[in-house]
Design brief:
binds coenzyme A, 262 residues, alpha/beta
Length: 262
């Protein structure tokens, strides 16, 4: 599919998705959100052989969040239209959050508002030392609503309360401290660092990695200890019995590399 505001590029097992409105620091407009939603919805069909996704932004910044001009315009739409629109955005973030392969965020410049929300739905985030983050919505008289489930799951209630009510911008070092990002490096080293993460991912069983993502989500959402036991026992039993699990265990015992690393 051809996109106007995304560049999607596949090299071997890695698909790179680049937000591409650099003049406005990759701010989300309706079309870009729709393209991201469509890319995520198509992924299960189009992704044969893809084992990692890297999301980044063209130009000086990762993403400046919602396009203020677009937000101003949609405010004049009916309440029903606004609710439908926000629900579609929420669904887009959820689809990205639940992609069955690891998603690596590549952050330079700034990740603000929805841009920081996009960071929160990545599994691994590598940020440049100078990158700035912020859930700055209150500064515009709005709130970080649809991204909040994903952000709170990443940084916890306490940091979310502080950062949502102040709307303060914070440096990569702070984002690292609260596990919103996982590596902070000089900007020139972003791609090498991401390549190292990709190499780790390619050494793991693809189905096991997908199951590991689901496991984290399911256990985090478990009702109680009994529910967690049920979820984890079933997940482990399935993996042990799977062809991939059998191949991984056999390869270890036979001192060879498992088939998925070829
Ligand atoms: N919506 C619409 N336009 C935006 C935008 C946004 N969220 N963020 C940046 N832009 C535009 C600017 O208006 C500017 O346009 P101009 O060239 O016509 O003046 C252009 O992008 C470049 O922005 P600038 O601020 O000069 O770039 P910078 O590299 O110095 O800073 C940011 C980048 C992201 C830190 C800064 O643009 C910013 O803070 N943006 C606002 C982010 C925000 O509040 N988002 C919350 C949305 S809910």
């Amino acid at each position: 599919m051809a996109y106007r505001f995304l560049v999607v590029d596949r090299k071997g097992p890695v698909e790179r998705v680049t937000l591409n409105r650099p003049d406005v620091r990759n701010a989300f407009n309706a079309e870009m959100l729709a393209e991201l939603a469509s890319w995520a919805a198509d992924f299960p069909k189009s992704s044969s052989g893809v084992r990692a996704v890297v999301i980044g932004g063209a130009g000086k910044a990762f993403c400046a969040g919602a396009d203020a001009a677009w937000l101003k315009k949609v405010a004049q739409h009916s309440e029903d239209d606004n609710i439908r629109d926000a629900a579609a955005t929420s669904q887009m973030f959820r689809a990205l959050d639940e992609l069955p392969v690891p998603v690596i965020g590549r952050v330079q410049g700034a990740a603000i508002g929805g841009g920081a929300g996009l960071v929160a739905v990545c599994d691994v985030v590598v940020a440049a030392e100078e990158a700035v983050f912020g859930f700055t919505e209150v500064k515009l008289g709005i709130i970080p609503a649809v991204i909040s489930p994903f952000v709170i799951a990443k940084i916890g209630v306490s940091a979310a309360r502080e950062l949502f009510v102040t709307g303060a911008r914070f440096p990569a070092a702070r984002a690292y401290k609260m596990d919103l990002v996982h590596a902070v490096v000089p900007e020139a080293e972003l791609d090498d660092t991401i390549d190292r993460y990709v190499a780790e991912i390619l050494a793991g069983g693809p189905q096991a990695i997908a199951a590991a993502k689901t496991l984290v989500r399911d256990v985090a959402g478990a009702q109680d200890a009994a529910d967690a036991t049920r979820i984890t026992a079933k997940a482990l039993a399935e993996r042990r019995a799977s062809d991939e699990g059998q191949e991984g265990l056999r390869a270890f015992l036979e001192k060879r590399k498992p088939g998925w690393t070829r």
